[in-house]
Design brief:
Blueprint: H1 4-45, H2 52-71, H3 73-80, H4 89-101, H5 105-109, H6 112-130, H7 133-144, H8 147-152, H9 159-176, H10 182-196, H11 206-220, H12 224-260, H13 277-321, H14 327-341, H15 345-361, H16 375-386, H17 390-410, E1 420-424, E2 427-432, H18 439-443, H19 454-481, E3 488-490, H20 499-510, E4 516-518, H21 522-525, H22 529-532, E5 543-546, H23 553-556, H24 568-573, E6 577-583, E7 589-594
Parallel strand pairs: 3-4, 3-5
Antiparallel strand pairs: 1-2, 5-7, 6-7
Helix pairs in contact: 1-6, 1-7, 2-3, 2-4, 2-20, 6-7, 6-9, 6-16, 7-16, 7-17, 9-10, 10-12, 11-12, 11-15, 13-16, 13-17, 15-16, 19-20
Length: about 600
């Protein structure tokens, strides 16, 4: 009797040992990278400003959290369903965490580590299913150390959550196989719907998964059960996404038409003919420059070479042993090979990648990490193809570890400051850049930021943050001194001091949303200034912010008016009078104009 517990422990360990050994490298990878990303975020993003998009998303998350904390789940859901062209998943997740823990803005950014972990685990599961243990850990290592992946995990942008949810949906689709089991299919549909809530541009990628699902069912054999399950999965995904799109689809459609294929798309990319090499190479080149960078690109090219060697060797081996077939039997044999391949996980991933390539290439808008939801699937394909036998798998894993450790360490520390660039043919791709997630954003706007050290750039950015907080406080005090609540219009703004950043600072200071909007240029609207001062969303403004635009052309593009100073006479005529001024870090002085109007204080 005394030996029974020991025997049970030995038996249990014997059963669990393969699972533990399989999962231990993945758990270690997650532990190291999540701790490193969290440390980096806390150390480098505290007391720092946010880019214009982050400011808007964080403010939205704060509002969602306020509703959940003070008015309950129903108010929170109602807030989420408010019309908005920006997807709700990341702000909602951070809002829940803030409501439960009371964390601040940096803590809300740390929520990205959840999505980072989901992406790594999903990539590992996909590769483990297709290939083996070595391929799975090599895939997870490369995905975890892809620059755009871990850098985006240190920001409050939608690219990472889109990549995580799309890869999770792909993982569920491989698990669902030919859709013979209803529970697996329902999970797939749920994840498809969640992916649609991660970022609106994902709507252009998801059809690739649906096409792959239809091909697999058709190749496996159409049955009533498979058609029923597939239909239930699609309906589940539609209903999950419709929770939000039912209230926002008009805004989303207008946004996608304008920024995806309308006049605004040209502001974020150049038009090219489908018959030009530019059209076909734009996305790969942009992926290298924006997401992969030089070392990871070289690594994937080396793994592609290993994969090609494996395919050539297998083809020669098969050709040497195949018997001679008639033309008819050879055609029949090829047909059965294609059909059999169409039932595999390889086909599902390839169809998704190819569809996504054409979907992304169809828009001029290069976007912010638009390719990131596709890159994990591409990495899975390359790594699994490279691991065609054990020797190739060991070589591939070794290359992945060496390169990924160098990339993750180099882009997380102080080793390269300022950054180092490698030249890849006619294009320039960064090799390492250790200065931080605001570097790319700041490079285009702040003087000499490209050659500034981390300390110098941090000082400049902190000055921008201090000025934003001062402006938010100034606007509140100006309105309160007149017994009013502020309704603010900006005639000038820049990448760091703008409607979003001031709105975020104001919410933190007061706990209320600041009604704030842009005063569009008369040349863009054809409407005189006095008529543009009324906005049905924000009401009649009592404060207008004017001043000279930035001398930096890229920064000046953020301003709504080409010449804000021209509005002075119109503001005076409308009853506004100059009140306060504020000096900006670059030496410009902005003017605060007041008019006695707007909601009175209670």
């Amino acid at each position: 009797m005394t030996n029974q517990p020991a025997a049970w422990v030995r038996t249990s360990w014997t059963k669990l040992q393969p699972i533990v050994i399989d999962l231990l490298p993945l758990a270690l990878l997650l532990l190291v990278t999540v701790i490193a990303n969290s440390w980096w975020t806390i150390h480098h993003r505290s007391d720092m400003p946010f880019d214009i998009d982050e400011s808007g998303y964080l403010q939205r998350s704060l509002v969602d959290s306020w509703q959940l904390t003070h008015n309950g789940v129903s108010a929170f859901i109602g807030q989420l369903r408010g019309p908005d062209p920006q997807a709700p998943l990341l702000p909602a997740t951070a809002a829940v965490v803030r409501s439960l823990t009371g964390t601040g803005l940096v803590g809300m950014i740390l929520v990205q580590q959840l999505w980072y972990s989901i992406l790594i685990v999903s990539s590992w599961v996909c590769a483990r299913r297709i290939s083996g243990k070595l391929a799975a850990i090599a895939t997870a290592v490369i995905v975890a150390a892809t620059p755009a992946v871990f850098i985006s995990s240190r920001t409050f942008h939608f690219a990472l959550v889109a990549s995580a949810t799309v890869t999770a949906a792909l993982c569920a689709q491989l698990w669902a196989g030919s859709f013979d089991r209803v529970k697996r299919t329902l999970l797939w549909g749920l994840l498809i719907g969640i992916a649609a809530l991660s970022r609106t541009m994902v709507l252009g990628l998801l059809p690739g998964l649906l096409i792959a699902a239809v091909i697999r069912v058709a190749a496996t054999g159409v049955t009533t059960v498979r058609l029923r399950n597939l239909s239930l999965g699609i309906i589940t995904g539609f209903l999950t996404a419709w929770f939000w799109y039912s209230a926002s689809w008009h805004s989303v459609a207008d946004y996608l038409r304008s920024y995806g294929y309308g006049k605004m798309a040209s502001s974020y990319g150049e038009k090219s003919s489908i018959f030009s090499t530019t059209w076909w190479t734009r996305r790969p080149i942009h992926s290298i420059q924006d997401a992969l960078w030089a070392p990871t690109t070289v690594l994937l090219l080396l793994l592609t070479v290993i994969a090609i060697i494996g395919m050539v060797l297998r083809f020669n081996s098969q050709s040497a042993t195949e018997e001679v077939h008639t033309v008819q039997s050879s055609a029949s044999h090829r047909f059965h090979q294609v059909r059999r391949f169409s039932t595999t996980d390889w086909m599902t991933i390839i169809v998704f990648v190819v569809w996504s390539y054409f979907a992304l290439s169809s828009t001029m808008n290069t976007g912010s990490w638009f390719e990131l939801p596709v890159l994990p699937a591409l990495i899975i394909l390359i790594v699994c193809a490279a691991c065609w036998n054990r020797v190739a798998a060991i070589i591939s894993l070794t290359l992945a570890l060496v390169t990924s450790i160098a990339v993750f360490w180099g882009d997380s520390g102080n080793s390269f400051d300022p950054p180092v660039s490698w030249k890849l043919g006619p294009a320039s791709s960064v090799a390492f850049d250790s200065r931080g997630s605001l570097t790319t954003y700041a490079d285009a706007f702040l003087p000499d930021s490209a050659t500034a050290t981390r300390s110098q750039l941090s000082d400049e950015l902190r000055a921008e943050l201090r000025t934003t907080n001062q402006l938010a406080e100034l606007l509140q005090n100006e309105a309160q001194s007149h017994g009013r609540r502020p309704v603010v219009f900006f005639a000038t703004q820049d990448p760091f001091i703008n409607t979003n950043s001031v709105g975020l600072a104001s919410f933190i200071q007061t706990g209320r949303q600041l009604p704030v909007g842009l005063l569009p240029d008369e040349k863009a609207t054809g409407v005189p200034l006095l008529e543009r001062l009324t906005n049905p969303i924000y009401g009649l403004p009592n404060i207008v912010v004017t001043g000279p635009n930035s001398v930096n052309a890229s920064a000046a593009a953020f301003s709504p008016m080409t010449s804000p100073v021209d509005s002075v006479s119109a503001l005076t005529e409308a009853g506004f009078s100059p009140s306060k001024t504020l000096s900006l870090p670059d030496g410009r002085v902005i003017q605060i104009w007041w008019r006695e109007s707007g909601p009175a204080l209670p």
